[in-house]
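From the pipeline queue, job 12 of 40. The input is one protein chain; the requested action is below.

Action: predict structure.
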Amino acid sequence: MALSMRLSRGGSKKRPYYKIVVADARAPRDGKFIERIGSYNPLLAKDDAARIVLDADRAKHWLAAGAQPSDRVARFLDAAGVKERAAKVNAKKGEPGQKAKDRAEDKAAKLAEAEEAKAAAAAAPAVEEVTEEAAAVEEAAPVEEAAAEEAAAEETPVAEEAAPAEAVAEEAPAAEEAAPVEAAAEEAPAAEEDSEEKAEG
């Protein structure tokens, strides 16, 4: 029969109280046990003497009989000086699992993409600024040409203004001359008709 030295839970809900027992390894945790060798009350302060009560002589007896202590009871035995417990070294204790590593890699890749996008966005405004400067220079050239044309136009506005006035003046007498000719042409047929009537009559 395999013997186990372990904790058996008692107490009420959210108020645990444990008995340190020697029992058959196949028995239920809170079931039948062979002997009670101590108690553990986790609700008491760590420096309280009543927190862990252990019968060291009976613990040594059962260890000699082949009882295997659980991890928690082995800690109690080590603290009591009954059996030295070798410290467990877990080299991978702080190392994240595979899924956490995958998530970290995905996050790093996303951050790298975001940084590249920021760098590209930062480079784009510089190019836009250069193109804006070029556009400003191109816009300034037509403005300068227009200003030169306006300056040239301002130098000879009197001649240009005089020429249209003279043209209007020339057109006005021609129109006046044409009007009497047309009136005379209209009167001439009327006169001819009158002379014909007189001749007949």
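Job complete. The radius of gyration is 59 Å.
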